[in-house]
Amino acid sequence: MTDKRVMLVTGAASGIGQATAETLARAGDEVVVADRNAEGAEAVAAGIRAAGGVAHARAFQAGEDASVHALVDGVEEEIGPIWGLVHAAGLLQNAMTSQVMDMDEHDEIWRVNYRGTYVITKAVGARMIPRQTGAMVTIGSINSFAALPLPSYCVGKAAVKSLTELLACEYGVHKIRVNGVAPTYTITPAIQARIDSGHRDPEAIRASGALPILVYPQNIADGIEFLLSDKAAAITGVMLPIDAGLIASAIYKQYVAPVQGFGQIGNG
User: Fold this and answer.
1) Is residue 267 part of a domain?
2) Does residue 159 sit within a domain?
3) Distance of alpha carbon 163 from alpha carbon 244, whole angstroms
4) Catalytic pick from 114, 153, 171, 185?
5) What pLDDT, on the 0 to 100 scale, is given for residue 262?
6) Which residues contact 201 (CB under 8 A, 6 or more apart)?
7) Is 265 among the domain residues?
8) CA angle 81, 182, 33 (to 5 degrees)
9) Four-CA torsion 216, 219, 88, 181, nearest 10 degrees
10) What is the pLDDT of residue 259?
């Protein structure tokens, strides 16, 4: 068993999950790197250990109840009580309309992204409640706030936002905080693959927010680290956009009349 805070990070073999696991380990937490990609999870855990951190690798399937419960039970019994959960495991989809989306793909995305979040937060919550401590961070999306042409992914991420708020109310009496982060288009390996295949335009991504920048997994991990820290002790039920200002600027950028002095400093 350990004296460190045990952080269970799913989807941690790459992307946001990997950046989060590495960030929490650098902060002194003991990290469980969980992913369906067992080899990738072990590689990330090995990298953390090589850098002086404490990490363990576990393989699991986010959309399978038995696998989720086996993961949570195994961590609790073999490593220690889970103090923090970051559920970053999820599936992406390409843009399409509801009329052309295959229902098998729709159901698989919903099963992993929403139902997977529900099942693992329930499993970890059952362990945290008797201890009266802990924190969770879910992964929403800018899709949690506005519709994009991603029929299953978009609706599922809106549901994750609602679930996060519900759990914050349900678990708050047990001194457990539940928050989420809502990333914009983040340059993960999965998004980079879509850029490479022509399904995403990096310059359009850069221009989509108030800040003309690309957002990377480390930006998201920094927000997650904050939400799990004592500095966020009074924050729960929040779905925090980490989006370079995309949500704030979406309607602003659609203003159809000229704006005097736009982009200038001073009295232009």
Assistant:
1) no
2) yes
3) 24
4) 153
5) 65
6) 195
7) no
8) 35
9) -130
10) 75
DSSP 243: S
Percent helix, strand, coil in the chain (nearest 5)? Answer: 45, 15, 35
Q: Give me the number of domains the chain comprises.
A: 1
Strands 54-59 and 176-183: unpaired
Mean of all residue pLDDT scores within the chain: 94
CATH code, domain with 11? 3.40.50.720
What is the spatial distance between Cα 43 and Cα 38, in angstroms, rounded to a whole number? 9
- Global pTM reads 0.93
3-state secondary structure of 214: coil
Residue 171 annotated as catalytic: no
Cα gap 31→5, rounded to integer Å: 8
Is-contact 221 17, C-beta < 8 A?
no
Q: Each residue of 145-176: pLDDT tens digit? A: 999 999 999 999 999 999 999 999 999 999 99
In a domain, 268, yes or no: no
Output the CA–CA distances (angstroms, integers) from residue 212 to 200, 219, 222, 236, 247, in the order listed: 16, 15, 19, 29, 13
Q: Which two tokens stand for residue 196?
A: 């490479």
Burial (CB count within 10 angstroms: exposed 0-12, middle 13-18, buried 19+), residue 237: middle
pLDDT: which is higher, 260 or 17: 17
What pLDDT, in 10s, does the model give residues 174-197?
Answer: 999 999 999 999 999 888 988 999
Element (H, E) at 130: helix 116-131
Residue 232's domain spans which residues? 6-254
